[in-house]
Design a protein that fits this description.
single chain; 194 residues; two-stranded antiparallel ribbon; binds zinc ion
Length: 194
């Protein structure tokens, strides 16, 4: 009998079976969804992380429209939806920033694997003149402080390396905010030749 309840030894296969795993970008490729999908849930305990990630996956996630007040320091400094405590207080008190329990939290800001230039990048960097290498290193130091994932950082730095390389071939570059004596005399010399 097909309507029989609690029959665990059913041999008939499930009638409606999903052919593919649920994918929230199937009908929605908007930027908003993309940004939400790329969110890295951190500074919360693993249970809260799961809850938030579930919301992201099933499109229940609602980003904050403005920063929220921290329940501990009462400053309006929470950027992440569903968090009730700011990251600073979470770290200080050793608590999850969502459920506020004293639990071990998943953290990207603290436990992030340090970024290293890979072979391709080192090769590209080596090919640059010294002054540009310094420009790149300064840029990299600045960028490392941004809240980027290593993948994002890598992409950004690769673009920068490319930009430095291309500009090198141009007759002039306008990003030269740190011309050294040597550079100036070099360009003067060039002018004389023309
Ligand atoms: Zn706080
Ligand atoms: Zn929690």
């Amino acid at each position: 009998m097909s309507t029989q309840k609690g029959n665990s030894s059913r041999t008939r296969p499930q009638k409606h079976k999903n052919q593919t795993a649920f994918k929230n970008t199937l009908h929605d490729t908007s930027n908003r969804t993309k940004i939400i999908n790329n969110l890295e849930v951190a500074d919360v305990c693993s249970r809260c992380k799961e809850i938030i990630e579930w919301k992201i996956k099933y499109k229940k996630y609602k980003p904050l429209t403005q920063q929220k007040k921290c329940v501990s320091c009462e400053q309006r400094n929470i950027k992440q939806a569903y968090h009730v405590m700011c990251i600073g207080c979470g770290i200080k008190l050793g608590k999850c920033t969502k459920c506020c329990q004293e639990k071990e939290v998943v953290s990207v800001t603290v436990n992030k694997i340090p970024f290293r230039l890979d072979r391709e990048m080192r090769f590209k960097l080596k090919a640059l003149p010294e002054r540009r290498r310094r420009t790149f290193k300064r840029y990299m130091e600045k960028k490392e402080k941004d809240e980027l994932t290593n993948d994002e950082l890598k992409e950004d730095l690769l673009n920068k390396l490319e930009a430095l390389k291309v500009e090198d071939k141009d007759e002039d570059d306008d990003f030269d905010f740190d011309l050294s004596e040597e550079d100036l005399s070099y360009s003067e010399h060039e002018d004389e030749c023309n």
